[in-house]
Design brief:
Alpha-lytic protease prodomain-like, 61% helix, Alpha-Beta Plaits, 344 residues, mainly alpha
Length: 344
Amino acid sequence: MPHAPHDPVNQDAHRHDAESRHAHAHAQPPNRSAHGHGHEHGHSHGHGHSHTSGVTDQKRIGIAFVLIAAFMVVELIGGLLSGSLALLADAGHMVSDAAALAFSWIAIHYGKRPATLQLSYGYKRLEVLAAFVNGCALFVIAAWIVFEAIRRFYQPVPVVGMPMLVVAFAGLLANIAAFAVLHGGNRDNLNMRGAWLHVLGDMLGSVAAIVAACVILATGWTPIDPILSIFVAVIILKSAWGIVKSSAHILLEGAPAELSSEDIKRDLEANVPEVRNAHHIHAWSITGERHMVTLHVYPAAGVSTRQAVVAVQQRLATRFAVDHVTVQVEDEGCPDGPGPEGRC
């Protein structure tokens, strides 16, 4: 993977920071590998994921897209011929799934591009954006299913059980194949998780259609069709809420659940002898798997800037699994005033 060009402005910033006794673990594009530098500024970039997994996830999503898109047409025709809302709801869900999988594939593809001077963290956030859009799409689909189901309670539509059963069973096989392909992917990746949940919703829709077809064939009771459709819609809404909530939290620069600034402060001050005080601690995520931390520290007496930076980086890497850290070392009062903890 090509590296972003080295900016000479950053070299000047390095010299300036060394003179002012501020040390930083500078941000780096997500697609660079771990490396070290032999100067006063400590760097920590050993990311906890590999690019091979991204390629694998992209292939998995591509295969799932082909399976879903191919059967989507079959289920749509089957739903129209049989008059089954469960099948039409599942076909509509498949349409959104095909679009969601395509969006996810594109996000992973562009996410592998190198960082630029304008986008210093690269394009990885596209995967989070794709997950957010896919989650919102699930809300729209579920709302349409519920609306159509309620309408059918008041205006029943004849449902032909056997074609509905055949198409629903074939749809279940297609969804199982797509689900199996995606299930082996990276479940920590929100984009991958969104695609996986889309297909899982399709599987449930197919199962609901099969159950409804069996009931209609056995008893002729057609209200089972919209009832089970609403059941599927509720499950879809639950999945959608989790994806939208998680992706929105990342897009709003929210702190990861496992990275509390108070926990980081207490841990550094209790377990890193080189640090007398830690403050102005900020934690956020580039993606669901890649977290970032910035903080200010006062070094202990006799501890050099470099020793303090390296000690903080090592502790955050081993204790909190954060490998991209920016550390500002201070000698006197904090120039930025009190941090989020209420004090310097």
